[in-house]
Amino acid sequence: MADTNVFKPKGDAKNEATTKTARAIIDGEAAARIAKTARLREARLAQEPVEEPVKKAKKKAAGK
């Protein structure tokens, strides 16, 4: 059976176009976010590890 627009209401074409455009925008943003996350992860892993200084415990005053 051939796919025709005979049985589709007129508003469906606009709805489909809007949905298609919205999905393209959302997919593009998701791809950009994934690429940015991968780039930042690689940059973080490429850095040398930084040793954090050891914190000394504070002594409490005996008379207070």
Short description:
This is Transcriptional regulator. This protein has 64 residues and is an all-alpha fold.
Observed structural traits:
Transcriptional regulator, single chain, 1 helix, mainly alpha, 64 residues
Outline the structure in words.
The protein has 64 residues and is mostly helical. The protein has a domain of 40 residues. It is 58% helix and 0% strand. It is built from 1 helix and no strands. The N and C termini lie far apart (91 Å). This is Transcriptional regulator.
| Low confidence ranges | none
Strand element count: 0
Q: Sum up the overall morphology in one term.
A: elongated
Going by helix content, strand content and strand pairing, the class is mainly alpha
Number of helices: 1
Average pLDDT confidence is 84
| Rg, Cα atoms, Å | 29 Å
> What's the SSE pattern?
H
Helix content, binned percent: 55-70%
